[in-house]
Amino acid sequence: MAMSTPSSLYYLFGVIMLAVAAYCLTLLTLSLATNRPAGRDVEISHIFMGVAMAGMFVGQWAFGRNAVWELIFGVLLVWFVVQSIQSIRQYGLHLPHALIHAIMNFAMLLMYWYPMGSSSASGAMSMSSGGPKLDPGLAFVVAFILFASAVFTLASPNKGASHFGSHAPAWAVVGTSGTDAEHHDAAAGSSAALRIEQAMATPSLVDVSHVVMCVGMGFMLLLMT
Amino acid sequence: MTITEVKEASTARAVLAASERRRPLASRPPRDLQRTFQLVLATIWLLDAVLQLQPFMFTRGANGFSGMLTNLAAGNPSWFHRVVTWNASIVYHQPILTDAAFAGIQFLIAFGIIYKRTLKPALVLSIVWAIGVWWFGESAGEIFQGRATPFGGGPGGVLFYAVLAVLLWPSDGSDKPFVAARTVGVTVAKAVWVVVWGLLAVLALAGSGRSPQALHDLIAGVNNGQPGWLARIDRSSESLFLHHGTTIAILLAIVCVVVASGVFMPPQIAQITVVLAIVVFALIWIAVQNFGGILAGGATDPNSGLLVMFLALIYWPLTTDRATPSADSAPLVLETKED
To answer: CA B40, CA A110: separation in Å to the nearest integer?
Structure first.
């Protein structure tokens, strides 16, 4: 029997992924306009993830060669791993903020290395359904980590750290969550951009964008099992 | 607020942030363990909610969610058989609507637990939902069929969500002697522990729990579609159960009794029994329950193994006092919008 998952569910996830990408693109643009350097790496990462994930949920929306996407997420993975190592060297052994972004980029690589079969709503990903299959155990572990990140991000008192974390452990920079700590380099940038950024880059919104991305990626990984 | 004021405030925050980052790190503040466990529970509910969105859940027929529910009805007394098939028929006729509703409720529970304002209603909802799913969706843990062995998830994995919700009900106070006692008190928490492990011991020996063939069939029934490494583990455990099933069931019952009594022992011995419980149920979760079937893409939840381990963790004896961090010591949060 053919899968009867309502295709609207995949379209819904696809649209949400694109919305997160658009939101992060706006944040990135605003950060360039206001010369706020913090969080750009996460925003760039989320833009690529949002666009790529939308293409996985809705095959018709996929574009670009897989090798290019693998290169992008490979570079981002290395970047966030380096950030994590630097954080550990600076602050001692802890779970660095950048680590979850490294895991997210690793998850993206897994999705490209092991495209799922025709059970997906995605036409693009179904092209190589005969290829090697992602180990469901690995997919489950990564998905569970992403769900945990979503939950603990929403519950964290360090709001906004999912985007603008200083890569220091949260308990070391209490009261300096990204949007407060590094978000407003007020000496530069246009006043209009600053006002828009005030409205757009609220800690709760940036956390929600991270949470949505985590849930969407976790769902896709579970679909691949 | 004028633009100048915004800029000044922002600059001040940036300076503060820079000085904070250069500040030598103080010792890590004590973690509110009850809150941490609540969030782990929310994570598991989130996993369940997403599992509910899998394609087969929306599928009508024998291969779908309604088929799974119908299969659970077999072997029950006729009155309960009708209850289960009634529920399955509703899902059969409205698979998309019912499954979307089921997923929505679980998302609601997961995200409700995250926020302190909605924590209590979410925990209440989780208890009601868990009991409902246990009755209608898990065929009362197969107790009426005599198949409710702990190896297979008896008395019903979803019941543990309700137990965890009660034991993790929010309250201030000390996590000593263990987190589970923080709200309900030491006596009630110990009673819950003894009842749970006593029930697991009984179910290990009652009904088909001690039958080698039934346990062998239990594993054979879940190993379809598992990854290679897990299928190899399954073949080993199938063989083990076929030849030593009764002995293993008796051993599990003994372990359950030992674990049940551990809560009355000195902390060091109690810790050993908790470790024993976690190790045994980790083995069961992997080698018998196959992670609840998640890796084969046909699960609605991770089954009881994970939750029993989680339950054991909240009974971990704490040798040092860990008072709940007070509001004064809670991390300061600067909300940009409120400035």
So the answer is: 25
**Token pair for residue A7?**
């295709």
pTM to 2 decimal places? 0.86
> How many residues in chain B?
339
**CB-CB under 8 Å, B332 with A175:** yes
Cα B93 to the center of its chain, rounded Å:
30
Q: Considering CB atoms only, which of B21, B40, B95 is closest to A168?
A: B21
Per the domain annotation, does A97 fall within a domain?
Answer: yes
Cβ <8 Å between A177 and B114:
no
Please check whether residue A1 lies inside any domain of the structure.
no
Q: Who wins on pLDDT, B314 or A125? A: B314
Of residues B157 and A122, more confidence is placed in B157
Please indicate whether residue A148 or residue B335 has the higher confidence score (pLDDT): A148
Between vectors from CA A100 to CA A97 and to CA A104, what angle results, nearest 5°? 150
Q: Look at residue A197 and tell me if it is in a domain.
A: yes
Q: Do B58 and A172 touch (CB under 8 A)?
A: no
Beta-carbon separation of B336 and A3 below 8 A: no
Domain that holds residue A201: 7-223
Residues of A in contact with B286 (CB under 8 A): none
Other beta carbons less than 10 A from residue A25's beta carbon:
16
- Nearest CB among B9, B229, B295 relative to A225 is that of B295
pLDDT at position B338 is: 32
Among partner residues A4, A135, A154, which is closest to B59 by beta-carbon distance?
Answer: A4
Print the SS3 string covering A53-98: HHHHHCHHHCCCCHHHHHHHHHHHHHHHHHHHHHHHHHHCCCCCHH
Contact B39 A172 (CB under 8 A): no
Geometric angle at alpha carbon B69, from B207 and B79, rounded to 5°: 65
The residues, ordered by sequence, that sit 6+ positions from B254 with a Cβ below 8 Å of its Cβ are: B201
Q: pLDDT tens digit string along B40-88?
A: 999 999 999 999 999 888 888 777 888 888 888 888 888 888 888 888 8
What H or E segment, with its residue span, contains residue B36? helix B33-51
Burial pattern B36-75, b for ≥16 Cβ within 10 A else e, equals ebbbbbbbbbbbbbbbbbbbbbbbbeeebbbbbbbebbee
B115 to chain A: which residues are within 8 Å by CB? Answer: 154-155
pLDDT tens column, A27-64: 999 888 887 777 889 999 999 999 999 999 999 999 99
- Structurally, chain A folds into a number of domains equal to 1
Q: What is the pLDDT of residue B118?
A: 97
Residue A145, in any domain of the structure: yes
Per DSSP, the three-state class of B265 is coil
- List pLDDT tens digits, range B211-257: 888 888 888 878 778 888 999 999 888 888 888 888 999 999 999 99
Residue of B nearest to A201 (CA): B336
A4 and B330 within 8 Å at the Cβ level: the answer is no
Chain A residues touching B337 at Cβ < 8 A: 198, 202
Q: What percent of chain A has pLDDT over 90?
A: 53
Residue B301, min C-alpha distance to chain A (Å): 12
